Amino acid sequence: MNVEVRDPLVLFMPSGKRGRFPIGTPILDAARQLGVYVESVCGGRATCGRCQIEVQEGNFAKHKIVSSLDHISPKGPKEERYERVRGLADGRRLSCSATVQGDLVVDVPQDTVINAQTIRKAATDRVIERNPAIQMCYVEVDEPDMHKPLGDLDRLKAVLAKDWGWKDLRVAQHIIPEVQKILRKENWAVTAAIHKDMEFSRPTVVALYPGLKNEAYGVACDIGSTTIAMHLVSLLSGRIVASAGAPNPQIRFGEDVMSRVSYVMMNPDGQGAMTAAVHQAVNDLIGKVCAEGGVDRKDIFDSVFVCNPIMHHLFLGIDPTELGQAPFALAVSGAVQGWAHDIGIDINRGARFYLLPCIAGHVGADAAGATLSEGPYRQDKMMLLVDVGTNAEIVLGNKSHVVAASSPTGPAFEGAEISSGQRAAPGAIERVRIDPLTYEPKYRVIGVDKWSDEEGFEEAAKATGVTGICGSAIIEVVAEMYLSGLISEDGVIDGALSASTPRIFQNGRTFSYLLRDGQPRITVTQNDIRAIQLAKAALYAGTKLLMEKQGVETVDTIRFAGAFGSFIDPKYAMVLGLIPDCELTEVKAVGNAAGTGALMALLNRDHRREIEREVSRIEKVETALEPDFQQLFINAMALPNKVDAFPKLAEQVKLPPRKADSEEAGASEATPRRRSREERAARRGRS
Amino acid sequence: MNVEVRDPLVLFMPSGKRGRFPIGTPILDAARQLGVYVESVCGGRATCGRCQIEVQEGNFAKHKIVSSLDHISPKGPKEERYERVRGLADGRRLSCSATVQGDLVVDVPQDTVINAQTIRKAATDRVIERNPAIQMCYVEVDEPDMHKPLGDLDRLKAVLAKDWGWKDLRVAQHIIPEVQKILRKENWAVTAAIHKDMEFSRPTVVALYPGLKNEAYGVACDIGSTTIAMHLVSLLSGRIVASAGAPNPQIRFGEDVMSRVSYVMMNPDGQGAMTAAVHQAVNDLIGKVCAEGGVDRKDIFDSVFVCNPIMHHLFLGIDPTELGQAPFALAVSGAVQGWAHDIGIDINRGARFYLLPCIAGHVGADAAGATLSEGPYRQDKMMLLVDVGTNAEIVLGNKSHVVAASSPTGPAFEGAEISSGQRAAPGAIERVRIDPLTYEPKYRVIGVDKWSDEEGFEEAAKATGVTGICGSAIIEVVAEMYLSGLISEDGVIDGALSASTPRIFQNGRTFSYLLRDGQPRITVTQNDIRAIQLAKAALYAGTKLLMEKQGVETVDTIRFAGAFGSFIDPKYAMVLGLIPDCELTEVKAVGNAAGTGALMALLNRDHRREIEREVSRIEKVETALEPDFQQLFINAMALPNKVDAFPKLAEQVKLPPRKADSEEAGASEATPRRRSREERAARRGRS
What we know:
The structure is a homodimer. Chain A is an alpha/beta fold. Chain A contains 19 helices and 31 strands. At the A-B interface, helix 3, helix 4 and strand 18 of A face helix 3, helix 4 and strand 18 of B.
């Protein structure tokens, strides 16, 4: 009888990759053979400590494997030395030294979790699998030999080929004059930083250090028109070391992107000045995250950027004028990479930059980043992804097809063009409720802990004052005015109500709503409502156009990306008709999804190829060229919409009946609105 | 009966490549399919005129082909238009427009001939087959389309892929901000300069021009310690447009390379200053060749450099100190390439530089260039290739094996350390003959048309004066002194002869030979002869060591590279024992072979791979580590050598008998030398 003796089975988590390996195989080698990414800088010398893993004990019946600590070799002298000198957490082992002795379930610690800082808790915490572009490789170079007079650099390349398998390695030009001194400094031991994502080029040594260099960092950066946000990440552990933001100093050249394009058109040095400003700001922000994380900026070897097309062009030193006029031609739409040094980013001399591809002239690398982060193309559900700014960038799709467009929402959602509008800052009203019977408002103010109708609100608000309405509250106040019958579905403030409530008052030829009487007086004017209607109609019409392209009547899930999306209440957004009908639980704010996409591309270069591929597949829709857009826009001016029903919303919110519906019902005096007006009068009488 | 109808046969000359093509095939396409390099910028639009060929008429029986002008299509309207507008020489056709109509012998004009300027006529004129790293590609880019919002750059890449087959093309970072304007300037027609030799990287667009750009140049440069020499070449036609030289300004830091290394060791800023000096000199020389050739320096896209290891390091900004001491470690020995801009060479912003590999710490890229040019590895004969400077670089080998070494000849051959020595310049004695009977010399002076014993010499020499002895004459005067018996095989001036001739006179404890009495007085001292003996012994011992490595007693052919080699008479070099015995007809001066090698690498990137491969195969010999070297050196002090015979030389030149030989023959009074002395006395008596 033959007894088949099989090699032990090793299962790596979380990837789930598995394979059989002879007893005595170092676990690091097993991981490598399976394509499981385990970091190692020292190349198996048990000195860098980057290759740590944990063994899980137990009977993993599902995987038909019993894992035990007895199935891994005990610590040898090298590993013990590492533990003594550098310390090793409980349960952790160095996979370069520990060998397979039996079946094992091995946990590869993944430190990069897209966490609450990056993305709202509502979304499931996600792990970004690491496969960064930078690999640190420690080697001991042969000393010069007169019999074989290979140059220092050539012997370095030879040992990198021998120890690490790098063939045809390139060496960045700026390293060549330094190589002699670096090699001799620590007795021919050096660590090479190798960049593996060089755009159709062989991997390249981009930095070289004497001895063991056990650190390498990267930055992921979202250059918004208003704010620049950055993560500093360890490329060796995946840990987010620091995150920070700063205003985009280009604001002094123009509040929104189109005014910055105008500035360039009007000023011969405009592009240069704005390019310099954003480079300076990025450099300053790098200084900030480095200070916070205790990291030397020269230890940053890779950087990934996302931004809208105009920021993208200005960042690269490209004149953005073409983007200000039809046909909105991008100078470059594909991903761009190069030496960070060449575009003035002050990090390591050999560091690279990578800019995600742009989708279209108005749908930039930031939308690509959000698309990478949320991945409509990765799932079956029809996902709507919107990022609202001066332009709304709209992506709609699923596994089979993705379409994208931008729509000119204008700055109303950001508080501009609104009489009492302001940025989200202490003193700004951020939440509003209106009593549907009395029309009395209550509100919350940023920096104040109470609602305005609670005891001690005025006292508490003294520090900040109540200074205006920010974006989220603009949505809410208009939606509440609609729900309470203060405005019609056409958005007209009902002047007749000025007789019943002092909150409605005449203001020239139209009426306004008084939200707060004080210094300043905060009102919602008919113009404010028109501005919101125009903005939301643009967003909705763009979405609707993409739904028509996809041939769908509804969407399954909605993602609000960006700061605006983080603060608005999905319910009110839907009441106003910013977004189509959808289960409210499926409407999620995902924060700076563009920045998360940049982080993913930084930590795993496979994500770069993924988004390059997906962006090339996305169907781009130019709203201005679509004959239907105008009609969709007109329909969308109504609240929530002239033709589209919102049945799922209606299950949760009592929507006022439509004029058309009620007219069709032959209602005249006894319309629901009239009825409710009577109810309210009754209630006022009671109160 | 089947009649086999075969497609016409097309034979391309000078490559000899042949193939059958259907009637109607454009000749350019036929060439491409066979891998025959025919330039074309416009991509078959009959506008650039670069694809010209000639048809040979006649019965080429050897090739079994009858070629006739009837076998090529008549000129069509496009070609006629080109002829009308730009002109077309008799017999020339545009191969993009002319099609195959029958059997053809097609001549592809090769304009790059290594001609007399580059290499002495003695060597056969050679044609360098062209395959430059730069290709100019004209395309017409799609205009922007809002429905397919690809960026300008992306549409450029797409058409380069479609029209020219470039896949995964890279675009140099510095072009990106310019791409919009360039594309729009000539209505979306552009020419891309594509560099195809990017060190393990994909071909790269390195420059971009509006419309048709029908010019591209390169420079090949030899940076010698003393002189920098440069060729400016059209990469599209192969024509050498201009050649020029200039002194190496580093001379002010040190006459020879070792004194420049000392300067660096002594001065903290020494390396930077010398690097800046050589860059400036190269830039100035580029200005000179461009002015001479009427070329804009911004139209230079590629550059190839050769130099010795210390010049190599200084050129790249590398500290050369390591090369001044054992183990003479090169910072980099392999070929180096990069952006010319990054090392301060002021040509096109996207131009590249390529430095040939170094062979060893004392055998540089210049020796590699000479090796590429002379190609010992391409032939069966055992070839000795020597380049004499302060160090002699010696390469010996054939198809099966090549060995190389350097030997410290010192500066004597260059006229330094010689009492009346000077550079080769007007006024310098360059040829010397000594009458073996009277010991009277005659000589020629640079800049003077007569020998010194001819009528009117003194009158003719008034303009220049007679100022000293240059390298070639030092060899000759010592050899002639030996042949005439003025010095022994040990190099000792025979003081006894001072009684017979006033040309020999006592000078301290030794004797000297008076070559010319005048202002200045030009003499050859015992020290001068010692210096020459030391230098020639070093060269010979190095050569002999390599012959031992190869296991050969003789060499088949000898090449003298460099300026020194161009002026010395091979016979005298052999009489002195600089080089081993060889048929005199097989000793050839090849001029600046290093520069020719640079030119070859510039015009054909296959030559880069060739020399990289060959240099890695060369066996490097470090003379200082070889136990035999000392004995070989001592043997080589004698004239021509203590142990080696020169039978082939003896067939042409009557060599004095060896002391050893004559002693063995038991000669005493009646030695040949004595005899000849008596003859001479008799002759004096007669004259």
